[in-house]
Amino acid sequence: MGNPFEAVWNTLKVTVDNANEPKHPLHVIEVGDCWKYLTMVEEFIRYEEIGLHTTNDDEVHELLIDIKKLCEEQSQKLRKFMINEGIPLPDVTPVKPESQEKEIPMGVKLTDDEIVNGMSLKLILSMQHAAKGQADAVRNDLGMMWLEFFSQWVTAGNTLKTLSRKTY
């Protein structure tokens, strides 16, 4: 079994040793992971927008804002990477219009529990896809980006877990 410190050392060695070499193009699996993840994170942002327009709970509202900000940061970073690599961007769901929580009928409006459960599911999917992207990555720069995304979701997940316990 490998040593984590050895893995970090090997990554640093490859990064430093290959600093002057041209980057290899991404392979098709890496491109597919980028497309899928960007589409998923953009859809997650739309879900958060819906949640922001329907919740009246301050803690849920604050968490939605935090996770939306995280998704937007990841989306921008991945978009920039894809553009630099010459990968066309996927079509994504457009921004949801603003609405007032009280204007949405009760049978249509998501409850706070449903919003938190939806965020939990989307967070788990985001973590899984970031881990898959990291496992599929041949290039270290892309692998490190996936690792960064994964660690951000782990941090957000701890906050979400605490909120989930309060809602039940």
TrEMBL record:
Gene3D superfamilies registered for this protein in UniProt: 1.20.1260.10
Recorded superkingdom: Bacteria
InterPro entries attached to this UniProt entry: DUF3231, Ferritin-like
Alphabetical list of Pfam families matching this protein: DUF3231 (PF11553)
Name this polypeptide is given: DUF3231 family protein
